Amino acid sequence: MRKSIIILIALLGVGWVVWNLHTVLLQLPDDADQGPVYRIMFFHIPAWFSAGIAVFIALGSSIGYLITKNLKYDAVALATTEAAVAFLTIGLVTGSIWGRISWGIWWTWDARLTSALVCWLLYAGYLVLRTAIEEPSQRARISAVLQIFAFADIPIVWYSIEWFRTQHPGPVLRGSGEMDGAMKAAVYANWPALMLVAAAFVLLRLRQEEVKREIDSLRRIVHAG
Question: How close are the terminal C-alpha atoms of the chain, in Å?
């Protein structure tokens, strides 16, 4: 994909995020119970949703590599996992800030928080492991297996507030959620905005990985000669 198109996608995403910031900070009223701190949720929740989409794509790409042995699938898995780790980091940090203000503590070994931290460690470990393996096919194969293993934690994170007793707030967007229509709309509006930014990042990383594969291929030809 052309670099100009990637830049356009990035600008659209960033512009949308800025507009949503304006809406969240200046137009929506403070929450009756939480006050202004609830505004963190307008980025905390979409960040986790975006991370979920990213790891799902990474899982599919990893399975695709195991089936086809095409390194392009591995490149997609890598790029989307990098985006996922960024979103997971945002989710953990914003959640900790909210917890400090609302609960008076930065962290508690709650089922949702603990499973989320394990999720971050698994995907961050995936990225670290890749740097330790030089041979592309071996790296892709081992990474794909780890990707499948890491994804097993996603349902635990999602359902932890239903399976375990937890301090974490219940679902606020579905069922008898705590947010009114305007607040939910702001949360949902920020989700595609973040996804556009992530899409631009992933497309840029895929371009970089393609160039890297071409350089590695030329090096092998030179060394073989």
Answer: 32
pLDDT digits (tens, 9 = 90+) for 146-203: 999 999 999 998 888 778 777 666 665 555 455 667 677 878 888 899 999 999 999 9
How many residues make up the chain in this entry? 225
By C-alpha distance, which of 176, 197, 190 is closest to 41? 190
Return d(Cα 177, Cα 42) in angstroms, integer: 14
Q: Which structure tokens are listed for 135? A: 């041979």
CATH class of the domain defined by 36-170+179-220: mainly alpha
Identify the burial level of 89 via C-beta atoms within 10 angstroms of its C-beta, where 0-12 means exposed, 13-18 middle and 19 or more buried.
middle
Strand pairing partners for 31?
Answer: 35
Domain chopping of the chain, boundaries: 36-170+179-220
SS3 31: strand
Q: Which two tokens stand for residue 178?
A: 């705590």
The model carries a pTM of 0.86
Q: How many CB atoms lie within 10 A of CB 208?
A: 12
User: pLDDT tens-digit profile of 63-95?
Assistant: 999 999 999 999 999 999 999 999 999 999 998
